Amino acid sequence: DLIPQDTEAILLVEFEGEDASIEAKGIDLRARVVDEIGLGTGGVLAHDKGQMEKLWRLRKAAVPMVMKSTGRRRPIPFIEDVVVPPQRLPDFLDGLHTILENYAVDSAAYGHAGEGNIHVRPLLDLSRQKDIEKMEAVAGEVYSLVRGLGGSPSGEHGDGLVRAPFLKDFSGPLYELFFWTKRIFDPKGILNPDKKICDKVSISEDLRFGASYENVPTGTGFDDKNLIEQIERCHGCGMCRSAVDTTMCPVYKALGDEKYTPRAKANLLRALVRGRLKPDELIGDPQFRELIDMCYQCRMCLSECPTEVNMPLLTKLAKAEIVKRHGMSLSDRMFCNFESVGRLASRSALASNFLMRIAAMRAVVEWLSGLSRARNMPPFNKGQFKLKKKSSLLRGRRVVVYFPGCFVNFMDARLGQSLSNLLERADMELVVPDLSCCGIPSLSLGDLDGARKRAERNIRALLPFASKGIPIVATCPSCALALKKEYIELLGTEEAQVVAGMVHDATAF
Fold first, then answer.
1. Whole-prediction pTM value?
2. Are strands 117-124 and 79-83 parallel, antiparallel or unpaired?
3. HEC string of 310-352?
4. All domains of the chain in start order, with CATH
5. Hey, which of 4, 400, 415, 470 has its CA 20 to 30 A from 461?
6. What average pLDDT does range 140-162 have in this prediction?
């Protein structure tokens, strides 16, 4: 509501000082920029901290918004870090606009006006030769413009492969010093080759796609065009390798091997859909199966990836393809059917809990399931969880539906009963429909058919409540994830959307 819908460009200026002084500066700046110079069409003065934070969030959201664009035209970072003297910034922006308009190229730009540093992302389809030629031409003209304004191709980041061909023009005689320094300390050119000193004159030699890029049928679930687009959205930025800035990927952070990163999986799947790897070559490779198995569906990559590549979905489908070709191990089958195992164990809880305290039995369980004998399993309930109610639905209390999940059903009935007691004190009443396991084990282990059957059963049981606006709570985070996110992906139905909209984690309810 602060910014008109048809706004094409925004300049954010923040002042520091006393309140009266700040407001006077803001009013003065608006008058000069809009009324005197005519560089703007309007101005908004953010008076409170909330409005200021909203505007800065908009700036920070610029990259994710641009990178989420769909289709083959993608924001390409080949002129994305130029810097010019701040007083020459208007000249640069005018020149940039003219160059892009001449080549009919749309773009997004953001940056730091006070430093003259602008990140430009032209939208191009680099699987088309015409757009590759546009990229070469635009880069040459933009860097020529920057050089003429006394600027540099790199303001915040390194020169790298994409800017190295232009450095000789910017550096002049200094380039020869770069060359001989490199030759002395790296005569074989094996340290970061072509990152600063290179013989290349083109920036299109190392393209991820290129004019020869095309997809081929694989006979797998990855032939779906929406999945191909997900695979191709990864542009290799390496955010998933970050050791500090992000929480993804926990497996990569623990093991430190590139092959466990989300982008490594995207690279392999892209090689599959473009025909560089045959399905049996990739899906049958033990190393591929191992790295896919290492993903435990925490979904952190999906929440933090700048382009929102749905790697959790792609990994689940890869596991399903592995299961389709090679079957499922006994231990995986056991975990997929833990509901049956838990029901059986809880019916004879005394015997089950006694046996699980015996070292020899834990060794057998380890052999069967892969679950370490060093792990102490939670004891089983004496029978499946059932609510002990003190009140009646007829008393007019607010109804809340509870999804207990396998843990409460078979291992910790006290958690479910405690939730019921707590809600009763808030004049609410818990009800538990006839539900199945949430299906997360099946989803994680590649049994999509089994997960789909459980999801359909649970949606049928929960829909009558959700459609009346009755909230659904879960004490197990995995169950809540299944109900809120996974079922929508798995089933793709309006009913799944309705149910998901009413689901809450019990601790947040």
1. 0.81
2. antiparallel
3. CHHHHHHHHHHHHHHHHCCCHHHHHHHCHHHHHHHHHHCHHHH
4. 1-58 (no CATH), 64-157 (3.30.70.2740), 222-326 (1.10.1060.10), 393-508 (3.40.50)
5. 415
6. 94
